[in-house]
Amino acid sequence: MSLENTSFENLDLNPAILRALEEAGYVNPTPIQAQAIPEVLAGHDLMASAQTGTGKTAAFILPALNLLATPHPSKSRGPRILVLTPTRELAGQVNEAARKYGKFIRARTVSIVGGMPYPLQNKLLSQPLDILVATPGRLLDHMERGRIDMSRLQMLILDEADRMLDMGFMPDVERICNALPAERQTLLFSATLDGNIGNIARQILRNPKTIQVAAQKEKHANIEQRLHFVDDMNHKNKLLEHLLIGAEVNQAIVFTSTKRHADLLAEDLYAAGHKTAALHGDMTQGARNRTLTKLRHGDVKVLVATDVAARGIDVHGITHVINYDLPKFAEDYVHRIGRTGRAGNMGVAVSFASHADRYQVRKIEQFTGQRIEATVIEGFEPKRPAPRMDGPGERPRTGKKPGGGYKGRSQGAQGYRGDNQNRSANPGQSFGDRKPAGNSNRQDAGRGNGPFTTQKRNEGGRSNSARRPRTFA
What we know:
Layout: H1 15-24, H2 31-41, E1 46-49, H3 56-68, E2 81-84, H4 88-101, E3 109-112, H5 118-125, E4 131-134, H6 136-144, E5 155-158, H7 161-166, H8 170-178, E6 185-190, H9 195-204, E7 209-212, E8 223-229, H10 233-244, E9 251-255, H11 259-271, E10 276-279, H12 285-297, E11 302-305, H13 307-310, E12 318-323, H14 330-337, E13 347-353, H15 358-368, E14 373-376, E15 397-398, H16 420-425
Parallel strand pairs: 1-6, 1-7, 2-4, 2-5, 3-4, 5-6, 8-13, 8-14, 9-11, 9-12, 10-11, 12-13, 14-15
Helix pairs in contact: 2-3, 3-4, 6-8, 14-15
């Protein structure tokens, strides 16, 4: 049977699962689902290469739920299915999918991740459960304390194994695997299956079937993508400030590469007068939920975030995404810019890049199959011309003024002008002389007039003045 003619009814899934799929409006499986589900139902171990957005979560959750449709003889309260994910956000998405598709078989699902109070997790783990979705570190902690009985575990699923490897979780994953029943079915999903991931798969899987599904290229036709080459941090900060004060910006997400940088940049933007909040993995789940609520209500205009924390954000008011730091993985670029241009609205995605970043820009373009145009704003030109990305003699567009608001400062305005004299006159001042919005009594002892000022930070990277909380709006 060809994949084009396959429906969920042809995949031998339990009628209760088919009912949940029908209620959710799904009739035909995606390619990864059509290929993976029969192999899992047949009892094979599986290693699958599939990008986010291909339907991979349902590709493993549906056959896992199908297993639960048959009662287990053991009286143990422990899980029959264990799903390991690299981040709490992804764990939440998997947990929600399990609840959604398992509602008619009454699958008992629990998510155990960092940032949740231990007493609450202890209570959840003391009750009977079928599916446990967890991040490796927190799960291993509970296992070492003897709080989870894995004796009746039948299936282990590693979701986004390449990310777990990159984030340093594989030693924890190996310890977890060694503590699980040897007679189990193991599924591994990853963006790639080569290199270290292939070696890991050979260690924990037994005679696995292999499936590779190429991701469909999203064109993001309603998102205008722009690229700005910057000379240094001072240039980058002034350009960021110029973009954020534009009249066309309703709400923006600014992506940074590290949690610490997200905090620092959010503080500096707040000091420059923006209603700003940070969002990253070191925040408690309650703090993150409060920040997202403020974002949805419009109380936060600029969200400074890391990749993992911003997964799944769906706020229609976000008009701009700014890649202050380019993502390490090209796939994350797609996730980032997808936070704007939602619900049929238009969006703008701006990326900052140094000359050293040009190879990463090429990787992103190869992954998306789209060219990102290099753009220069009058008054914010880089000292060095933009590198040639494709053909010889290609240069960035100059003086582009789309949408009526993206025009750059006039020659008389403060900001970067691309000349050595201007840059050395006050290298610390980046965002101009704006005052904090709405909170004029705020004390910013030791700070200058903008972010990344000349105030010294101690060896730990923190300001000599007291640190503010992570939410500033």
